[in-house]
Amino acid sequence: MTAAKYTIVGLGELLWDLLPSGKQLGGAPANFAYITNLLGDKGIPASRIGNDSLGDEALERLANLGLSADFVQRDPIHPTGTVKVEIESGQPRFDIAQPVAWDFMDWTSQWHELAREADAVCFGSLAQRSEQSRSTIRRFVNATRPQAVRVFDVNLRQSFYSTQVLSESMTLATIVKLNHEELPKIMHLFGLENRGEKEAALSLLSAHGLRLVCLTRGDAGSLLVSADECSEHLGVKVKVADTVGAGDAFTAALVHGYLRGTPLAQINETANRVGAWVASQSGATPDPKTAGLALS
Predict the structure, then answer these.
(1) What angle (nearest 5°) sits at the alpha carbon of residue 77, between those of residues 248 and 55?
(2) Partners of 11 in the β-ladder
(3) How far apart are CA 171 and CA 185, in angstroms?
(4) Distance of CA 157 to CAs 56, 72, 75, 256, Å?
(5) Pair 100, 15: CB distance under 8 Å
(6) CA dihedral in degrees (255, 262, 115, 223; nearest 10)?
(7) Considering only CA atoms, which of 214, 219, 289, 281 is closest in space to residue 245?
(8) Cα–Cα distance measured from residue 205 to residue 192, given in angstroms and rounded to the nearest whole number
(9) N or C: which end of the chain has fewer CB within 10 A?
């Protein structure tokens, strides 16, 4: 790995996952930023939490994870976000509270400065369910430098998405990541013919001016497609504890490699290994010292 350290922002929902085993801090921005840090870059979560006890606990947990809370806003009215998570055969089912603090993210001068400093930003569709946060996310992404990598991580949760939000977000993005269950839904919403995963990825690539489409297939690996290259990976077999945060870990490794110009096959290998490692542990932010993450 190169010694260069990039500033990479996870932008969106910061919340507590209420798991059968207890509550764990989650949401894509924190999960993504945590793994980004483990990989050697500077991962920064940007979100909004309530001015409540769960918000206080979130700040404490971020500190324990080694994550900066400098860009985590406090909301005096709305509560810290929660998600009730049920695990069935290792797969999570989500019941996402609404409205909560991350639905009211503010566009501030501090966030504008962060956007200008960012080498990459990852944003999703879930955090755009409210008009205010959607506007803030768009302003943040548009404020990044032209060379910054913009990753749109599709997350079709409950009814918290629309064709317009998905299409406009893809147009803003450099890279789009989605899973094998989301792809046919996206193609249907966009009115595009679905003639297979690679052809569908190429259609999205062309329609939205993307540089890369990433399709994850759960334990069956992933497909990376650019205009002139394609990489398939069969996945890394592990005993799954739960898959919460595994996709965010995959995205973190994807961005880490992409910023360094790493070949797609190598990016795919590393991202699958990192995602599988998180899936083999309970929760989205396992401790590498006790859980044995090896990247060499």
Answers:
(1) 45
(2) 46, 123
(3) 18
(4) 26, 23, 23, 26
(5) yes
(6) -40
(7) 281
(8) 12
(9) C
Residues forming a β-bridge with 212? 175
Per DSSP, the residues of 211-260 read: SEEEEE-GGG-EEEE-SS-EEEE-------S--TTHHHHHHHHHHHHHHT
Burial class (CB in 10 A: 0-12, 13-18, 19+), 215: buried
Q: Is the dihedral of CA 125, 27, 121, 252 positive or negative?
A: negative
User: Which domains, from first to last, does the chain contain?
Assistant: 7-283 (3.40.1190.20)
Across the range 256-265, mean pLDDT stands at 98
19's tokens: 């798991």
Q: Which residues contact 138 (CB under 8 A, 6 or more apart)?
A: 168, 172
* Tokens, residue 178: 């989605």
Mean pLDDT of 136-143: 98
Whole-angstrom distance, CA of residue 84 vs CA of residue 65: 22
Inter-residue contact 231 to 198 (CB < 8 Å) = no
Read off the pTM: 0.94
Two structure tokens written together for 118: 């960012």
Task: Give the integer Cα–Cα distance in Å for 87 and 93.
Answer: 6
pLDDT tens digit string along 173-229?
Answer: 999 999 999 999 999 999 999 899 999 999 999 999 999 999 999 889 999 999 999
Residue type, 250: F
- Pairing type for strands 22-26 and 15-19 reads antiparallel
Residues 6+ positions from 111 with CB-CB distance below 8 Å: 46, 71, 136, 140
Closest CA relative to residue 209, chosen from 162, 150, 163: 150
Q: Tell me if the bond preceding 99 is cis, omega within 30° of 0.
A: yes
